[in-house]
Structure formats: C-alpha cells, structure tokens
Specification:
about 425 residues, five-stranded mixed beta sheet, 18 strands, six-stranded mixed beta sheet, single chain, 2 domains
C-alpha cells in the first residue's frame, strides 16, 4: 500500500479557470485547463474566460493601439486622476479608464491603474478534454467534439485585461456585454493586486469551488451593482446575477460545476452585503463549504468524517472534498434540476479516494445531515443508475455503512468485485482485497 497525500481537490468542471486570476501579461498565458474535479492537473483543454467560454492561447495579432478615450456613452470624459488604460489591437466604444475608476469607487479602493486592455478575435475553437475517468463515470466529462461559442470573454492580469471576441467584432458585439465583461475583469485586477499585497489568495486552503465562488462570485456581485447603478445590461436585458442564473440553469450539465461558483457566489454576496466596498471584510470571514455558499450562513456545520483505506496491493490517494456543487452537477446530468438540488441539499461532508495503477478506480465517501437525507441520496443514485448505460459510464455501487453515511464505489469490474466499505457515521474504512 502506497498512500499519497495531496492538497484538497481542485474542483471546477469545465470552467476551472473561468475568469482570470493570472500573472502579468508579460508571462505566457495558460492554455491548458479543462475538466478536473479530481485535481489531476493533467487537462489539455483550452483555458476559459469570464463568460464561461473556452479561450485559445494568445495569438500573434497586429498590435494597433486605440485611444480608449471615448466616454462610456461614447462622449469624451476627462479623468481627474493620472494614469489611463490604453486599448490595443483596436478601439472600444467606451472609456476603459472611466470604467476602471467606477470599479475602484464601488470597491472603496485606490488601485493601480491597469496599463491596457488587449482585444483579440480568434477563430472558433473546439474543446478537447483529456481523459478524465471519474468525471466520465459521474457524467461530468465534456464530449470531445463539443464546441464553445460566445460573443465576449475576458481574462484579467494584475496590470492588464484581455477581451476576446468570438464570431463578432467590437462594432457588432452587444455594447452592454462589452462593458460588463470589462467591469468583471477590472474587479479581478483589483483582487489580484490586493492578493499580492497580502501575499495570500482569497480563500486559500478552502475547497477549490469555494475559493472560485469567492473570487468569481465577488466579481459577479460587484458587476451586478455596477449594472444597476449605471443602467447597463446584457443584450437580453438581464443584469449579471440574473445572467449567471440563466447560465447555470440552461447550460449543459457538464458545465454546471463550473457555472455554479459564478452564480451561487454572486448570489451569496448579494444577499450578505449592502455595499461592494464590504467585499474585502467578507473575504476575511468566508464560507467554508459550497453548501454555505449555496444556502447561506446558518446552515448546519460540516460533520466530521475520517476515511481509512485498507488496500495492500493498490496505490491510492485521498483527493479531498468535492462538495454540494459537484453533487448537483452529477445529478443534473440525468435528473431534473429541482430533483438534483434536493438530492444534494443534505450534504454534510465527503472524501474522494482514487485508486491507481494499471487502472483507475474510486471510492466516494459521503456523510449526510441525517438518515433521511442519506436515503434521498441513495434513491437519487438508484435513479441515476437506471438512466445510464454501464457501457458508457461504467458501473457503480452504493454501500450504506451507517445511517448518515454512504460510500459510492465506481470503477472497473475487478475493483467492484473486491472493494467493500464499513464503519460508522464519522469513521469509514474502504477495503480492497487482493489486486481488485
């Protein structure tokens, strides 16, 4: 037995890096990210953007510089502060400097003005995820031929923003969308600058989806306040939180765990804060689980859960906590959205164990708030199994080890034939006999 210990799982199906917390644009832009709720770090899909669409790597476009001097309403607007945001590779129908000043004011900060907004218009791209066995078995792996299209996406650095336009131009893109994506990215610019000063990421040490909810949800919330204050909406008339809610409910199930942090994070801050300037104080007392992000403060605290492994002939590693957001995404792959939410709502704790070697197998140990919630989970898993083809997803088994605790075993036939689980509500042992 060779246990390997790693940091908590990096959750974020399909959109794990949606949004934009990056280094200076002088550094190479990451272009390899995709589906990775098990934290492998081996994905090879394109990086993603603020709009939740996939982003190709940086292209070598002509570097023409626009003035960016027009006001947000198309008229010239003087700035009473030094430092302006230049626009490269074209021009914007708005004053990027003025937009950034408004973001500063909303956040109650005096930030370093970003140097530039870079525009780029790549060709249509196609997402090509790497092999992800756990995601495939849970119905979370994006199909390899799935295309992603959008109008405007963005990525933020500590001193610049990149706006990407697909199948459109600056002239044709919805003007409100251009402005709101830019606002979202400028919030990220300020977040990055403040993280650098405190030498610590917001939400450091928390589950990855919670951390993304803090960062992306914070940007969605501030952008929503901006939209209401300045009368800006998306092309369909929605403000940012409503836009994210629509994304979450209507996008394919494979993207639910990625869109969730944007929507639930934005909603969490909107319900908790009276002023965007209070965001920084909220970061000092963050939610600790996706359940708290989704349902708000006051939800039952996480119940203790200890998972031991007895597998002398298998290497394994504990992959950390997946949380309610991933559960919702898994159920949404086959079940109605309300049913999926109800089945996941009683989550109290979980640990994923990955067994390695010439094949990959998994044990997902989940504790629920009470026996009734565990019953609801088992029933939903049974319905999930009835709707899925084992030829496509592989088999899985559920083991009720205690009134509040269920173990999901999924993987190859030898594993399913030789793996068992036992224990109490708070202490579980997963046993794999022989080389199963």
């Amino acid at each position: 037995m060779v246990p390997k210990w790693i940091l908590p799982v990096a959750v974020g199906v399909l959109l794990v890096t949606a949004g934009c917390a990056e280094l200076s644009p002088g550094s190479p832009e990451p272009s390899t990210t995709g589906v990775d709720p098990t934290g492998d770090g081996t994905t090879d899909g394109p990086a993603t953007t603020e709009t939740g669409e996939a982003t190709p790597s940086e292209s070598s476009e002509p570097n023409t510089t626009g003035t960016g001097a027009a006001g947000v309403d198309g008229t010239a607007t003087p700035s009473d502060r030094s430092g302006t945001v230049s626009v490269k590779n074209g021009e914007l129908p708005l004053n990027a400097t003025l937009v950034f000043r408004r973001v500063e004011r909303l956040l109650g900060v005096d930030a370093d003005t970003p140097e530039e907004v870079r525009l780029r218009t790549p060709a249509t791209i196609r997402f090509t995820p790497s092999e992800q066995p756990f995601e495939r078995r849970m119905g979370l792996e994006a199909p390899g031929d799935e295309s992603f299209r959008g109008d405007v996406g963005g990525r933020a650095f500590d001193d610049a923003v990149v706006l990407t336009l697909w199948n459109t131009t600056v002239e044709e893109a919805p003007r409100g969308e251009l402005e709101l994506v830019l606002v979202h990215e400028f919030v990220h610019v300020v977040q990055l600058q403040r993280e650098a000063r405190r030498d610590r990421e917001f939400g450091a040490g928390l589950p990855r989806q919670v951390q993304r909810s803090l960062v992306e949800g914070g940007a969605v919330y501030v952008t929503d306040v901006y939209a209401r204050e300045y009368g800006v909406t998306y092309g369909d008339g929605r403000t940012p939180i409503d836009h994210r809610a629509k994304d979450y409910r209507e996008r394919p199930p494979t993207s639910v765990a990625g869109t969730g942090p944007y929507y639930f994070g934005g909603r969490y801050f909107d319900r908790r804060l009276d002023d965007p300037a209070d965001l920084w104080a909220a970061y000092e007392d963050p939610p600790e689980t996706m359940a708290e992000v989704i349902h708000g403060p006051g939800i039952d605290p996480t119940a203790p859960l200890s998972v031991d492994v007895d597998a002398p002939d298998r290497e394994y590693e504990r992959r950390g906590t997946l949380g309610e957001g991933v559960l919702r995404a898994m159920f949404r792959s086959e079940l109605d959205g309300d049913v999926a939410a109800t089945a996941a709502a009683g989550w109290s704790n979980d640990t994923l164990v990955r067994f390695e070697g010439d094949r990959l197998d998994f044990a997902w140990v989940l504790r629920w708030t009470d026996a009734d919630e565990a019953d609801a989970f088992e029933n939903a898993m049974a319905e999930l199994a009835d709707r899925r083809s084992e030829d496509v997803y592989g088999g899985f088994e559920t083991v009720r080890v205690a009134p509040e605790t269920v173990v999901v075993l999924t993987g190859t036939d030898p594993f399913l034939g030789n793996a068992t689980a036992s224990g109490t509500n708070g202490t579980v042992t997963v046993t794999v006999d022989g080389s199963g």
